[in-house]
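Customer escalation, tier 2.

The customer says the design service returned an amino acid string that "doesn't look like it belongs to this structure." They asked us to rerun it and document both sides in this ticket. The original structure tokens are below, unchanged.
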């Protein structure tokens, strides 16, 4: 029958026995035969191709549901579609990681206290027209960016009014973010009163530098932040490079 025990199969596929067992437990690499008495697993040489495919995809951090899609795809065209989507995901992830490294470089080069100009002033309540969405703290830039693009498509009639994103003062694992443009009769109302603001010039992943300067200035002056926090995106990402992006960061203060 051409069956081989799991150890020989793992050696042939250049995998560990533990990995082969794990793929079996996930339903990705089912043995060709299992001895009903001993429970020993046996595989065929033809299954090496499947094992190698799984190992390559998992090595790229492709999620298990997507691995199943690839293995169950009816033809090469369907596989190409799934792999194309993963290629785009990995390219975006590479950009995100490069931006994170640039942010680390900026933090390393920055003086202990980054020179941001902070202003505190009263302002009237503002209403926003847009939508809210769920955002993950560990994918803040990615999720907020996706929400902004969605709002831009929905509010094509808003012209070039800058987008405003509204965040809670304190972050949790997941939370709602409102994104919109100032508009009378909007669904989201920003409170009037005292606000502290500063401008950040540079990539969005470096915004924590601005937040630190803003909130430290507020603390030193004896004010207490009440939230919400807003980011107003003053430049168009389609025409400005990452280093040219201008973002106004603001926090509402306790009255």
């Amino acid at each position: 029958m051409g069956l081989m025990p799991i150890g020989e199969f793992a050696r042939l596929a250049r995998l560990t026995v533990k990995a082969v067992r794990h793929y079996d437990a996930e339903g990705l690499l089912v043995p060709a035969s299992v001895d009903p008495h001993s429970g020993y697993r046996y595989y065929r040489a033809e299954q090496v191709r499947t094992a190698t495919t799984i190992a390559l995809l998992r090595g790229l951090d492709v999620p298990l549901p997507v691995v199943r899609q690839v293995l169950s795809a009816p033809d090469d065209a369907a596989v190409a579609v799934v792999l194309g989507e993963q290629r785009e995901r990995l390219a975006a992830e590479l950009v995100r990681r490069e931006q994170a490294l640039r942010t680390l470089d900026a933090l390393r080069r920055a003086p202990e206290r980054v020179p941001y100009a902070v202003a505190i002033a009263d302002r009237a309540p503002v209403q926003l027209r847009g939508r809210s969405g769920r955002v993950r703290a560990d994918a803040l830039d990615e999720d907020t960016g996706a929400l902004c693009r969605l709002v831009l498509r929905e509010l094509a009639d808003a012209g070039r009014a800058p987008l405003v994103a509204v965040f809670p003062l304190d972050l949790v694992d997941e939370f709602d973010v409102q994104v919109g443009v100032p508009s009378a009769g909007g669904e989201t109302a920003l409170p009037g009163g005292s606000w502290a603001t500063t401008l950040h010039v540079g990539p969005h992943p470096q915004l924590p530098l601005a937040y630190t300067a803003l909130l430290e200035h507020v603390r030193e002056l004896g004010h207490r932040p009440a939230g919400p926090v807003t980011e107003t995106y003053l430049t168009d990402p389609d025409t400005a490079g990452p280093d040219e992006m201008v973002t106004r960061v603001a926090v509402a203060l306790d009255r």
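Tier 2 assessment: The sequence is consistent with the input. Residues 131 and 150 are 9 Å apart (CA to CA). The mean pLDDT is 88. Sent an explanation to the customer and offered a walkthrough call.
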